[in-house]
Amino acid sequence: MKHGLLLSTLVLSLSIFGCSKTSEQDVISDAQACLNKATAATVDTCVAKVSGISGEQADAIRCYGAFIKEGITSASKLVQALDTISSGINNSNYETFLGLVSFTSQGTTGTPAAVLNYDLAKVSSTLCAQSKVKSGTLISTFAFLANALYKTGCQAASPTCTAISCATSNANCIPNGVIAIALAPATYSTLLSDLGTVVVNTYLVACESGAKTDSMCTLINLSVSEAGGTSNTEAVGTNFIENLTNP
Predict the structure, then answer these.
(1) How far, in Å, CA of 216 to CA of 21, rounded?
(2) How many CA atoms lie within 13 A of 135 on its CB side?
(3) pLDDT per residue over 148-202, tens digit each?
(4) Residue 73: phi, psi to the nearest 5?
(5) Rounded to whole angstroms, how far apart are CA atoms 92 and 211?
(6) pTM for the structure as a whole
(7) What's the chain look like in SS3?
(8) Could you read off the pLDDT of 21-46 as tens digits, one per residue?
(9) Torsion (CA) 70, 156, 90, 243 in degrees, nearest 10
């Protein structure tokens, strides 16, 4: 399978912990064991085990806990998402791909739910980058983008995506978000900067070295390069959306 490494990392065990016998390490190991058997309904219990613990391992628990909560680690769903972009990400498949990796646990219809899902995706992207786990960081970047576009699409209501009808199943809401940003980029400068920050973090964790031929990293690396590096996060975010929707 082309996506075997990414899929196994997300669906199976985290397998990132050492053999330290410290009490904190024992707690983290216990949380991992819990996570490996968790469902969307039970995963909060696993994540709660590392409450108050900082560091990459604890953040990895929180990162993958969020994926389980959102159903993104479902083997069939993840395979479908990755197969969608097996020949690269382009303007004919990005909507389907983003829909499959979007956060939906706070509801699937209406602007309030879109905002809450966006907030969770933003937090998750930070935790995944802090964990330094490449596969999780990559997926979290596109999950954040998906929810950013859903939120923007809902708030900039159109005949095909109103604030009431906006839903993660409404394919019109993602391009509606793209159009809204393209028409008034200054209005969305904060969102573009936030997106750029996520992209830069992912570039540094997962794409700057290794995995450069992966379609997700190809898009990320191009967006950073066109911005002249990592310092101008708003330009990186703008490039990321443009490269995704107009390759």
Answers:
(1) 37
(2) 20
(3) 998 998 888 788 787 777 877 777 788 888 888 988 899 999 999 999 999 999 9
(4) -85, 0
(5) 23
(6) 0.86
(7) CCCHHHHHHHHCCCCCCCCCCCHHHHHHHHHHHHHHCCCCCCHHHHHHCCCCCCCHHHHHHHHHHHHHHHCCCCHHHHHHHHHHCCCCCCCCCHHHHHHHHCCCCCCCECHHHHHHHHHHHHHHHHHHHHHCCHHHHHHHHHHHHHHHHHHHHHHCCECCECCCCCECCCCCHHHHHHHHHHHCHHHHHHHHHHHHHHHHHHHHHHHCCCCCCCHHHHHHHHHHHHCCCCCCHHHHHHHHHHHHHCC
(8) 468 889 999 999 998 889 999 999 99
(9) -110
- What's the residue count for the chain? 247
- Residue the block writes with tokens 């899929």: 7
